[in-house]
Specification:
With about 160 residues, this protein is mainly alpha-helical. The chain is built from 9 helices and 2 strands.
Length: about 160
């Protein structure tokens, strides 16, 4: 359940359903059916903004609480009229997730390499660059916790002896 009020959800649902009906009737193209977050906010609240987080939250609430499928594109939000649009949206979300996972992995690897090159951890996190336990991965920390091995030994075995 969200803290979006019911009247706002009703208004957004009404706008999206009206545009969906016009698309089904052939009066709107996909682009014409779509409505941006800012346009939706202006339609409902009178505030035209480029990005309206409350509107985006309300669109998510429509899907969650009212089971109304909503897809988005550079043109805005719309209720899909065909299964391909849902499939495309799911593919797009998978791609975004993969991109985020790749960035997460790159950041983790870059941080480990940064520390191996002797760059001081305290520059960014206030940590002690000689605190090997904090430099270990979660799996390595679990290994140290379970076995009692010295964190420095594990670090040097896994990552080399540079600080």
């Amino acid at each position: 359940m969200t803290d979006i009020n019911t009247d706002l959800l009703d208004s957004i649902e009404s706008v999206l359903r009206r545009r969906h009906a016009k698309r089904v009737a052939g009066a709107y193209s996909k682009a014409e059916q779509s409505i941006t977050s800012g346009e939706l906010a202006a339609t409902i609240t009178g505030e035209d903004t480029d990005a309206n987080p409350k509107t985006r939250e309300a669109v998510r609430a429509l899907m969650d609480e009212r089971s109304i499928p909503v897809v988005s594109s550079s043109n805005g939000y719309r209720i899909p009229t065909e299964a391909d649009a849902v499939s495309d949206e799911l593919d797009s979300l998978d791609g975004r997730i993969a991109g985020i996972q790749q960035r997460k992995s790159l950041l983790s690897s870059a941080w480990d390499a940064w520390l191996r090159k002797g760059q001081p951890a305290e520059v960014t996190d206030g940590g002690d660059p000689t605190d090997y336990y904090d430099r270990l991965t979660g799996a390595e920390q679990a290994f140290v916790d379970e076995t009692g091995f010295d964190p420095k030994d594990v670090w040097e075995t896994r990552h080399g002896d540079g600080q």
